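ok posting inputs for the UAG job
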Amino acid sequence: MRTITSDQCNHQDDPDAARPSLRGTPGPPGTLTAVPQADQSYPGPPRPTHVRPVPLTELARQLGAEAPGGDAAATGITHDSRAVRPGDIYAALPGARFHGADFATQAASLGAVAVLTDPAGTERAAATGLPVLTVPDPRGRMGALAATVYGEPGKDLLQIGITGTSGKTTTAYLIDGGLRKAEEKDGGLTGLIGTVESRIGDERVKSERTTPEATELQALFAVMRERGVTSVAMEVSSHALVLGRVDGCVFDIAVFNNLSPEHLDFHPDMEDYFRAKRQLFTTARSRAGVVNFDDEYGYRLISESEVPVTTFSAEGHPDADWRAEDVELGPLGSVFTAVGPKGESVRAAAPLPGPFNVANALAAIVALVSAGIDPQTAADGVAAVPGVPGRLERVDAGQDYLAVVDYAHKPDAVESVLYAIRKVTEGSVHAVLGCGGDRDPHKRTAMGSALARLSDTAVLTSDNPRSEDPLAILATMLAGAAEVPAYERGTVLVEEDRAAAIAAAVARAEPGDTVLVLGKGHEQGQDIAGVVRPFDDKRVLRDAIEHKRLGDGPHSTPDHRTDA
Ligand SMILES: CC(=O)N[C@H]1[C@@H](OP(=O)(O)OP(=O)(O)OC[C@H]2O[C@@H](n3ccc(=O)[nH]c3=O)[C@H](O)[C@@H]2O)O[C@H](CO)[C@@H](O)[C@@H]1O[C@H](C)C(=O)N[C@@H](C)C(=O)N[C@H](CCC(=O)O)C(=O)O
Ligand SMILES: Nc1ncnc2c1ncn2[C@@H]1O[C@H](COP(=O)(O)OP(=O)(O)OP(=O)(O)O)[C@@H](O)[C@H]1O
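and the output
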């Protein structure tokens, strides 16, 4: 293993030059070790190129676990045996499907130096001959341990965490816009972590989850620090809060957008879902909060937050700290005045349409101001965001009607998007929607109802059926559509094949109408019976529009649709 000293490592030469603006506290000087960048079939997240090895005895002390003999040290940590690199601790966690200890042999063969596990995994881990660190709840200890292994990278980053049922991704991109604007004069880079992707400056990294597991997150923070990132906006899902994925982080600002029924396959009820989100507003997790005054659960959070909160109201409520006033909604976005508690008043713009994006933009501005950025810079940065992948994203192929792809895949989001489109367009709306299999089945009826009630043509179709029968999912959605009184209901079509469903909506579009393809947004594949086939709503929509223009029959008139 090649060892270099800190003065050979770029960002240690002149830490102030590398991370100057929003934070910029350099790590302590010391010896850095180049980390082997092994070839892996499972790529895992990016890793820092240099770390300071941490002796296992020190890590055992942190865990309160029995110290292993010898002088081995760790240079990384992962919870996935396939992603182990030489020098890693392998965290063998109990899960719903497996016990990670079953993969300890693979971890050892890839160069793990120790295994962190629970008493149930100790014997299998010890059989590899590696030192074993046993604790009752390894998942609960893994985040803080990962932060230690990677040298507490989060402490060198301004961290803004966003939670809520809808708008996390959008708000994260809008905050990133403001952070970029603030960094313009200093030359610092920004980071973004969320559902669509992670970004290290302009480099894009594929996301496996909305919020990475703690070992991946701390490694990502370390890479960001190494490359000169000074501030990061990240989505924090309720799964992440319950599963300890953000253990080891203290967010400078925590943002709460809203809460509506979702993930009720994971949370037993809304109270449990709310409490999971509320964890982000404890002193262990954040320093200050930004909370949506207009949301029922946001309003409740104001009194239940442990950290001081600043409130915002896109509806202009006079009791909120920040308000959106003089809102003008437009088909491409909205403009409004953000009015603050100290007499601040800046003209701002939401670069995406719909009232809910005024809320997302105001949330972003208030989070940025709470992080110390001046309101005009914050508003300018938010307004400059060119769009968010798969969120109200337009497809233009020269047609005389609007065609939009959107990620709405829960009842509240479907309603918000349809209301938003209705507010800014006059023609008919032809909307396509499916529900994913193996996920919260409770929302399917409500999704069917919302689409039937708010569209002129509702085309019910497949999303990612996964292991479920798509027709069974569609039957539940159709039952929801049938609950809508006939006088309120648009034409409902059922078309199992998603491409044909999109073509059916396009076939009905007249000049001035809107075709709205919902549910998959940025996604590039469709999971049918565990096989993910390439499927890109934007490309399929564009093809359907072009086929219609060329009068190419089969694509514009699917022959196996069902009128409800
Ligand atoms: C409910 C949930 O979130 N489960 C997560 C959890 O699974 P689990 O504990 O049951 O793990 P398991 O599959 O039994 O495996 C046990 C252990 O063996 C390890 N293993 C497994 C196989 C192997 O070859 N080698 C290996 O080391 C696994 O890494 C794991 O640590 O730990 C796994 C390892 O990190 C995660 O992949 C898995 O996320 C699942 C796949 C998932 O999709 N979660 C979704 C629902 C999720 O987290 N969504 C949220 C919210 C999104 C939103 O708001 O829309 C998100 O943040 O993405
Ligand atoms: N503030 C909001 N209120 C209601 N609906 C919203 C809001 N923001 C976005 N949406 C809708 O929800 C969809 C998903 O938005 P976004 O990806 O920003 O949220 P998210 O919280 O990251 O969602 P997910 O958890 O599903 O990834 C958007 O495409 C839009 O239809």
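notes: Residues 1-30, 36-40, 554-564 have pLDDT under 50 and may be disordered. The longest helix spans residues 168-183.
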